[in-house]
Amino acid sequence: MEDGNPYFGAAHRPHDRIKLNVGGKLFETTISTIRSGGPDSLLQALSARPIDDSNPVFIDRDPEIFSVLLSVLRTNRIPSTARRFSKQELTDEALYYGIESRLKSAMLPPPLSGIDASVVATIRPASDGLPSAFTAGAGDGSLWIAHGGQISAYDCNLAHAGTIRTHINDITSIRRLWPDVAAVGSDTAAGLHIYDISGGRHVASAHWTDPSDPRIYKALVSAIADSPNSVYASFYCRHKENCILVIDKSTLQVVSEIGRQSGNSMKTMGAGKLTYMPSSSLIFASAVTSGAFGYSGCIRLWDPRSGEVVWETTEPGSGRSCRFGDSFADVDVDADESTMFKVCSKSGDVGMADLRKLGEDPWVYLRDNNPSMAHKGGGDSSSVIHCYRKQVFVARGGGLEVWSQVEDKETEEERENMVSEGSYRRNYVDKLDDLERGTITKMEGGGDRLFISREDVEGIEVWESSNFSVAYGNGQMFNNNNSILSDGKHTDGSGVRGTFAQAKDLYSLSDSECHPFLELLLSTLFLGAAIIMPLGMTFLVAFMSDYWMILFSSLAYSLGLSFLARSTPPVLSNATGSCSLYQPECIGNTQGVLFCTALALIAVGISGHITSLGSFFTEQGKIQTPSDQIDMKRKVP
Amino acid sequence: MPPYAPMMPPSGRKESNIVTIDVGGQIFQTTKQTLTLAGPKSLFSKILDLPASAQIGFPFIDRDPDLFSILLSLLRTGNLPSKAKAVDLQDLFSEAKFYGIESLLVSSLSNPSQFDAFNLEKSLILPLNGRDSPSAISTTMFGSVHVAHGSKITSFDWSLQRKSTILTRFSAVDSLLALSPSVAAAGATDFSGLQILDLENGYVKETLNWENVTRSSSTVQAIGSSPKFLFTSFESGRRNSNSIVVFDIENLKPVSEIGTNEIYGADLDSGIPATKLSWISDYNLLMASGSHSGPSGVCGNIKLWDVRSGNLVWELKEKVDCFSDVTVSENLSAIFKVGVNSGEVFLMDLRNLGAMNTWVPTGETRRVVNGKKEGVGCKIGSHGNQVFCSKGGNLELWSEVFMGSTIKSEDGLQERVYRRNLMGRAKDMGGSRITHLSFGGNKMFVTRKDQQSVEVWQSSVRGF
């Protein structure tokens, strides 16, 4: 309203106003409103014309959409009448009038708040739907997804803008360098490659070469970052030699090589995550590996100009850390706030460090004051951490939580001089149902949207905050849940059904319609085996006595029961360190093998008992009376 | 379209660029330029041609103003507005017919330029009634499709919302080619003669035949067409002769015969009739290909004919890893084939034919041929800049990657880089073996073995 107010009630000067005839409908507005569209707009050009009230300027466009755009210009927000038009239509029309930047800013979602966000869309590319990398780097809410060898671009309305095929077969890192240009890297194809997305062309490539060192051969790219002038790419070779190459953005030539490492120890691994921090012009590089002995990783801050390490830490470290043995599973840096956050692999705690006060052990651990969330989800499943808009999003397995600061006036000063780890509150972003959609593999924020990819799930979820409450009836809610879940995996919580769920996963069936059929199939197979096997067992009894048969089958039975118990995730996780939930992602090959062996052993046990138990008991009874024994001897000549 | 109408002199009202129309009581204003976009045959050109003196008030059209506003938006922007979603497409189409702008409506919804190979999704299933699965399929440029199943031909219009089915004399139609949305040529390998069918009324307009020296009847193996000619590959049972007959597409009179073959003695190769005819307009050549499965494996030939002179321009005999299916792409100027043994896609550049005729594998590595016939039943088709290949129930899309010229040596890539993409989401994968691939408008049509339906793969149209 700020544009209209100065004229309200004041003496109207007629030459401040302008009349427009759009498609036969007359509009009247002020010149300042018209001019607020920007200097290059068509409306700006119109307002510069001499004003002739009797003969307004005629624009041959749809009047209804114009009325929407005019109220965007007047109030800076989208009116409710805009719901009749698609976002694409509004954008096209705004492009015609040259006021697309105003519309864009009015259409942006409200600031992302992790404590009040929901999935608004799932973006699924038409083919090769498993995203291998994505970037929301432009910051306007647009998204580029690398899936297989293709890159699909989605604009700020999340509408599909185009897809190109690269020569790489699986892109594992992507970074948007310019509005139309992306740098991609792969862990199977050598080099950093730069593609023009709008033209669909390969523009340039950069390779790490060193004629003096034969080990530097076909170096792969694991992470890409960029500053206004340079592109930084983390290269590594087959034998783990690694470095960060600095590539000039204007010439696309390699300028320098920083931090070459041999890669022969955990401390010298190639960086899997690179971030350029504009405030300090340092590069944040982190590397994490996980193995049988847990996680290990290192963080380094590089000065790209001198090529020196400014600060580094390695976990598990030398023991000086107060959390020795609890190394981080993932780390992310908030470049705007100059803080970094890590999530611990064992305890699942979130640690924070101020980049301005780095020392031996800079970590401060956030206290969880939310009693309802007390000690839920340790670090036993894979964790991803991402900082966006002063919030820390932590994904544990399939669940998503957010640490956000409580805005408090008293703590304002404290925050200035002290890290206010106590002011962070932890909340779940998602619902319990969302857990089942799969382990979160990557999160990235951009344009007040949070984009999330999950393991083996097609498409990317878009989380947004909204100022509109979405009230819906029961039936609709049911449908909504269905539509979200239909692409995810489905599991059952209870024990027996849980084991069947494991079996289903062995057959890699995710469709819920198959559940009853498979349950029936497995149970029939098991019962059938148990019933039919006594036929063969009777022949076995001829070779060994009933006694041995019972002993053998009892052993098999109890072994089978113990295998069955071990195949459940909570028990198995003690031994293998895998996750302990009754969820498809927690169920691996080990479970499958154990479960099937268990079923087979139990079937052997049951059939052995069926065969021999009866005759063994009668035999036992007969042995006690000698006359019977004699009778038997008579019968057998 | 001008961005806005120029200011006119206050006196010159009658010279005004602005046109006011009253449609069903609602006043619309637009410019002359917008209305002339509708074309000279439309109702609007008549309104524009009205002498200024004859106008008393505004021209009045007694039609629904809501539908008119949608069509006016289409004229202004070239796209349908989203409020058109509330209206049935058939209503809109009949209204567009009234104004004489139906071609604009069709092209806004089903324009071949909207075909986006990477954004194709399995969007529709067109069911076919009865128990016969499709035996032939043919499309027109704007996406209407004719499907032969059993002795019937079902035609779907461009919006795929209307269909009609006619009965033919064939027991099964083996080749079908749409000559226009309502006329198709059909032939069968077990029924003599090529029939030109009127699909709207379901009668045979004309039957075309080829007779060899023995004056016996002949069956149709393949149909192809160019803007001027209709090509038909006939095979006669007597004396194992075959020929490609060129008909004039307008009056359907035979123009010439090319490549007449008869088998003499043991020369089996000459007896292979062409089973696929494709017109290469950039080169003015007709590609005829045929293959034959014999005791020594599959052998076949690909021939390029100059239709005017009737000369054989180029011929390739396929002995090892013969094609299972072959297609020509003019945009990529190359012939593509699927090898019947390897199942791999190969290409041959059309630009330097004749020099060294070797197939180049499009994939990076060539699999070892282990004697299995991996490529049996594979279909290949090209549309736009892409090549589509079916492998069993899956669809592959081959696309060229345009590489900067400087890096090829470093990355060890070939001159032309092709990459394979699997089409569809996980739920669309698999299914019965694909029997036909066809393209029309912004859609791809897929038929599968034993499925009494046609799958439509479509990229989402803006606003719909």
Textual characterization of the structure:
Chain B: It holds the Pfam family BTB_2. Chain B: InterPro entries: BACURD1-3 (IPR045068), Beta_prop_At2g24240 (IPR057441), BTB/POZ_dom (IPR000210), SKP1/BTB/POZ_sf (IPR011333), T1-type_BTB (IPR003131), WD40/YVTN_repeat-like_dom_sf (IPR015943), WD40_repeat_dom_sf (IPR036322). Chain B: This is BTB domain-containing protein. The complex is a heterodimer of chains A (637) and B (464). Helices cover 28% and strands 29% of the residues of chain A. Chain A has 637 residues and is of the alpha+beta class. In chain A, the strands form eight sheets. A four-stranded antiparallel β-sheet of chain A has the order 4-31-30-29, with no helix packed on it. Chain A has a four-stranded antiparallel β-sheet with strand order 5-6-7-8, with no helix packed on it. In chain A, a hairpin with a 2-residue loop joins β9 (173-178) and β10. The model of chain A is unreliable at 1-12, 475-515 and 625-637 (pLDDT under 50). With 464 residues, chain B is mainly β. Among the domains of chain B are: 16-109, Potassium Channel Kv1.1, Chain A; 113-132 and 320-463, no CATH class. Chain B is built from six helices and 31 strands. In chain B, the strands form eight sheets. Chain B has a four-stranded antiparallel β-sheet with strand order 4-31-30-29, with no helix packed on it. In chain B, a hairpin with a 4-residue loop joins β19 and β20. In chain B, α3 packs across α4 and α4 (89-99) crosses α5 (102-109). The longest helix of chain B has 13 residues, at 65-77. Chain B starts with 17 loop residues before the first strand and ends in a 5-residue tail after the last strand. Mean pLDDT of chain B is 84; it is low at 1-14. The interface between A and B is large, with 53 and 55 residues.
